[in-house]
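PROTEIN DATA CARD
Card holder: Glutamate--cysteine ligase regulatory subunit
Chain length: 231
Origin: Aegithalos caudatus
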Amino acid sequence: VRDCIQKTLTEWSSKIGQDQNQETLEVLECSVAQAIEKINPEERDELKVSAKLFIVGSNSSSIRDAVDLACSALGVAQLDSVIIAPPPVEDGTNLSLEYLQPYWKELENLVQNKKIVAIGTSDLDKTQLEQLYLWAQVKPSSNQVNLASCCVMPPDLTAFAKECDIQLLTHNDPKELLCEASFQEVLQESIQNVKANKWIPLWLLRYSVIVKSRGIIKSKGYIVQAKRNAS
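Structure generated from the sequence above:
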C-alpha cells in the first residue's frame, strides 16, 4: 500500500510542479489516469468487481464517498461486493453491534440504491456475526477470518455461517493497513513543501476486478482519501 501511494504521489507531484499551492487546499485529488483501467461496458457481465473498505479516521458517511469514487474510477454503475473491515475502536473496548450499526446502515442504503450487490464483514466472531445478522435488514453475505488469528475456522462460527448461508473467507491483512504516521511519512517523501503532519487519512479501499469464467484477477488497486486538518 505504501509503495502504491508513494509512486502515485511522486508521479502526480512531478506533473503539477509548483503551479498549485497545496497549502490552500483541504483535499488533494491525486490520480494517475493511465494507472487505472476502466471497465469496458461490453465486458461488465463477465467481470466481478469486489472491494474491501478500511475506515481509518472517518465516520460511516465516508462509505458512500468510497463506493462512489470506486465506481467512477472503474467506470461502473455498481460494485458486486463490498466487505467492510471493522473501524478501529479504542484500546480495551470490544467491537459491539451498536458500534457497527451506523456503518452497516450506510452499506444497506447503498444496496437498496443498487450501488452494491452484496455486503460482507471482516473479523467478526460467531457472537458478533450472529448479532449483526439478526439485526440487519440486508444480511451479510460473507465474513472474512484472519489467518493470523486462527489456523482452523472456529467450529461455532462455521456452523452458524453454514446455517445462515454466509460465506467464510480468509485474509491476511494487518490489523492496521494504513496508519496515520505511515501515510504522513510517505506524503512528506513524495510532495515538496507539504505539511504532512496536517494530513489525516480517512479511508482506504482496495478493489479487484476478476474474470468470472477463469477466476483470474484482471486488475486491482487502491483508492485513498485524506483530509487536511486546518488546525
